[in-house]
Protein 1
Amino acid sequence: MGVEGCTKCIKYMLFFFNFIFWLAGGVILGVALWLRHDPQTSNLLELKFEGTQAPSTFYISVHILIAVGAVMMVVGFLGCYGAIQESQCLLGTFFASLVILFACEVAAGIWGFMHKDTVSKEMINFYDFVYDKAITDTIMEKDKKQAASSALKVFHETLNCCGKGQGSSFLTKLTDIAGVTDVCPNTGFISTSCHKRIEELFSDKIYLIGIAALVVAVIMIFEMIFSMVLCCGIRNSPVY
C-alpha cells in the first residue's frame, strides 16, 4: 500500500483500536441483552397491578444501549476495512460516524447522570403502592387483595426482602405467621428493607452501564485521532 513510516504504524494502530472497538460493541450488545432479560429486573419491570405498569425508564436506557452496541459493531468493521484498504472515503465516513456516536454518548451520559436516581425512585413508589394495597387496605375485595399479594410476593422473592423498612418487615412477617397475609419469602426471618434492595439493584446496573460508556468514549477519542492522521497521511502519500 501507499503509506510508509509512522503513518503505516498509525494504520495498524487504528486497525487494532477498531478491532477493540468492534469487540467492545459486541460486549456492550451482550451486556445490554443480559440487562434486558435478567430475571431480577424482568420480574419486577414486567409487573402490572390494577392497570398500573411498573416504570420502564430503565428499559429505555437498555434499548438505547442495544442500539449503540449494534452500531458500534458496524462502525468498527467499517473502520477496520477502511484502515486496511487505506480508503479516504471509508475513513472519512468512519470519522463522521464516530463524531455522531460520541456526541450521542455524551448526551446520553448527561441524561443518565441527571436521572440516575429516577429509576429506583419510580420502582420504590410502585412497590409502596402495591405494598399498601396488599397490607393496609382492609376494605379491598378478596380477589383484588390476592392480586396485590401476588404482585408483592414477586418483589419479595426476587429481591429476597420483605417490607419498606425494619419496622414494616417485622410487622409483615408477623402477619404472615398469623396467617393474615402470605407475602414474605419462606426463607426464615428477613429484615432487609425492599427500598434498600431496589436501590442496590438498579444502582449496580447503572454503574455498569456508566463504566462501559466511559471505556468506549476513551477508545473513540483515540480512534478519531488515528483516523484523521491516517487520512492525512494517505492524502499526502505520493502513491495516491
Note: The radius of gyration is 25 Å.
Protein 2
Amino acid sequence: MNTNAGLRVVVTGATGNVGTSVVGTMSQDPDVAAVVGLARRLPKMSVPGVEWATVDLSRRDSPEVLDQHLAGADAVVHLAWRFQPTHAPLVTWRSNVLGSIRVFEAVARAGVPALVHASSVGAYSPGPKDGPGVDEEWPTHGWPDAAYCREKSYVERVLDAFELRHPGVRVVRMRPAFLFKEQAASEQRRIFAGRCVPGVLLRPDLLPFVPDMQGLRFQALHTDDAARAYRAAVIGDVRGPFNLAAEPVIGARELGELLDARVARVPRALVRPALAAAWHAHAVPASPHLFDAVLRLPVLDCARARDLLDWRPSRTAQEALSSFLSGVRRGAGLETAPLVGRRWG
C-alpha cells in the first residue's frame, strides 16, 4: 500500500450522493493533505480540509477550469454524472460522456498519476441473477436501450482507449451496485420517483404489497462503504475494475420484510406499460428503459475488492436500504444543490 503522505486529491461531482461521502472520507485520511471538490454549483456546507470549486463538464470551456485545478494533483476521482433529464438524452450525453472525456484528457495533460472512475453495475451486460455472481471480466456492453447504461458502457470503452494511450496513468474503475444513504434519500426520490411522489407513502401501513416480478433481484451498498473503497483505491497501488456490493441480494421477499408488506406476484408485462405511460406523460422521471435494465443486471462477485483493496462493507444491503427509506420519510438531505432535503407536504 502506498503510504506517501501529502496527497492532493481532486473529486468531480463532489456534492452528490457518492461525492459527499468520498470527500468526507478523504479529508479524514492522514495520507491526504488536500481535497478539491468540483461541482456545477458550490455547496453551502463546509467540510474541514476540502476546497470547493465550480466546473460544468458539459461546457466547452471546462478544460481550462479542469487544467487549473488538476495541476499538481496526485489523484482524480471522477464521480460527476447526471441522471436527468431522461427525456433529453443529448443533455446527459454532453455531461456524462463528453464531460468524462474532458476529465480524462485533463488528467493526461496535467500528468496526474492516478484516475479513479465511477462506473457502475449498470455498465454490465445482462447476466445471471443467482449464483456467486459475475466477476470484473463480464462484458460491459450495458443495456443499450437505457441511456444510463449506454453512457456508462460507452465511457468504459473510452477508458479502454485512454489506458492504451496513457499506460503511465493508474486507472481504477469502480462498479458498485445501487448506492444508498439517508442524506441522499430526497435526491434519489426526485431522480427516480419525481418531486410529486410523497415520501410518506413508503410507510408500511400504506403499502398494500411489494410486487414480485421476474428479474427483481438487485444488490445494494451503503454509500459510505463505497467511499471507503474509493479511498483504498486512491491510497493504494491497484489498477483495473472492482465490483462493490453488500450482502444479501435483495428480492421481493427482502423488500417485503423491510417494508413490513406482503409479497404478491405481479407479471412484468403489467408493470412496464404503466411505467411507460407515466414516463411519456412526464409524471415520473424514471424511464421504462431503465426498468428493463434493472431486471437484467447481473449479481456481482466482489472477491477482487476484498482481496486487493482489503475492503468489506460494514453494513448489510438491508441496512443500506433502511437508511434510504428512513431518509425518504423524513425528507433528509445535505446543504448541496443535488442533496437538498425536502419533506413532501
Note: The mean pLDDT is 93.
Protein 3
Amino acid sequence: MPGTVLLLAASPAGKGCLVDAASVLPVLAAVPPGVLSGADTANVVELADPLEPQAVLTRLRAAAAAPGPLTVFVAGQLQLDRRQRLPHLALARTTPSTVRYTALPWHWIREELRLRAVGSTTLVLDLHADTETWEWLRGASLDCGGNNAVYGRIAPPPSRRTVAVPAYMKAVATILRSGWRPPVEQLHQQALARVGVDGYADLVLASPGVGGPVPGGAAPGPPYRPEEPRPRTPDGLAVAERQQSSETDPHSAISVAVRSGRHPDADALAAHHEQAAVHAHGTGSEEALHWAEVRADLAMFAGDPVRSCRTWLGVAVARLAAGQAADAPAVEAAVDRAHHQWGQVRDAVAARELGAALADLRSRVPGRRQGALDHVQRQLVQLQTQG
C-alpha cells in the first residue's frame, strides 16, 4: 500500500521571521518518495510558505484520510495567539497581533490525525519558538496526539537580527538522500548528532506514539535550563545533548564527559562504539562513519585540530571509497570541516602533511565555496617558506 508524505515549511515574511523554513524543501524534495515515507511508493504533497490556514487544513485533512502510512514533515516557527495563548504554526502573513487569524492552530494538526490507526502516523518536526512561546513551553507540552510517533526538536529563539535554519530537518533530509531510511528512532538520533552543539538548548521531541507520554514540556528527562551555556563553534560537534528515557544513550554520556572536560574519556567511549560499528557493519558503513565523525568533533572540542583534521580527511576518503559522489552533502561536509580544522593547525610540519592530503581531496571535492583548492595551495606555498 502506498504511503503519503506531507512536506510543510512555513514562516512569516518580513522581520517577524525566525527561521528560513522553506530552505529545507529542496533537500527534502530530492529524497525519493518511498524513502521519505518508508513505504515502497508514496504520494508527496508539498506546501511552501502557505498563506492561509484553511488551505493548509484542507491538505492536511486529505493526507490524514489517505490509507497507508502517513509521514508529516513540518519546519517552521511557533507563536501563541494573544487571546487563548495556544500554540500556532506561523504562516507567511502571520504577525504577533494576527496569530489567531493568519496562523495554523497546532491543535488542528492533532485533531485531523486523531482518528488514524496507532502506528500509522509519524511527525518529524523542526520548530523554532519565539520568546513568549519558549517560556510557555517550559511549563506546557506541544500536544501532537498520543497515538502518533513524534520526533524532532523545538529550538529557542535565535539571536536578534538572525534568521535560523532548520538544521535538524536538513540533517534528516541529508541522511535520507543516501537512499536508505533507517528506523525513525535511529534517523532521529543521527540527525540530532549532526545538529551538534547548536542543539544543546533544544527541547527534544521523541515519542514512539503508543499512547505514552506526550513529548514536550511534560516529557520525562531534564527540561531546558536557561542557565546552561550554549557553546558555538564554526563546525558544530556531532554529539547532541538530549533528553533521556529508560534507555541508555552513549551520545549523552559523551556529551557529559565533554562538558566536564574529560575529553579522553569521551573519545574512548566513541572509539569503542566506532569499533563495534566497524565489526557489525563494516568500515565504510554509515554507522561506523557516524562514530568517526563524532571522534573528529571530539578532537576539535579537545583543542586538537591535527587529530580532528586527520579524522575528517579519513571520513571523506572512506565515503568516496564507498561510492558516494564527490558532491554528496556528507562528503562535502567532511572535506569542509577538515579544511577548517587544518586552518587551526599551528605546527608547520603537521600542517604541510595534512595540507598535501587536503589539496588532493580538494581537487576531487571542490565544495560549494569557490577558491577552496586555491586557498589550500596558497597556504602550502607559505608553509614551504617556513622551513
Note: The radius of gyration is 22 Å.
Protein 4
Amino acid sequence: PVTNAEVTAAMGRVLHRPTLFTAPAPALRIALGDFAEDVLGSQRVLPGRLLDAGFSFAFPGIDAAIRAALR
C-alpha cells in the first residue's frame, strides 16, 4: 500500500514533472463531488492470502505500475 504522497511523488518521477504538494482535499471535494470521498478515504489493505500463496505481482512497485498504466 502507498500513500497519496507516495503516488504523487511516483507520478512526478515517471512523468518527469515536479510534485511540490498533493492535491488539497477541499479542491478534490469541489472538483469530484461525492466521488471525492472514494479518492480521499483510505484503508491500509494488504493482499495477505495472495502473498501467503506465493502470488507475485507483475508490478510490485508503484513506479512500474504507473509506467504500465500510461502505455
Note: The mean pLDDT is 90.
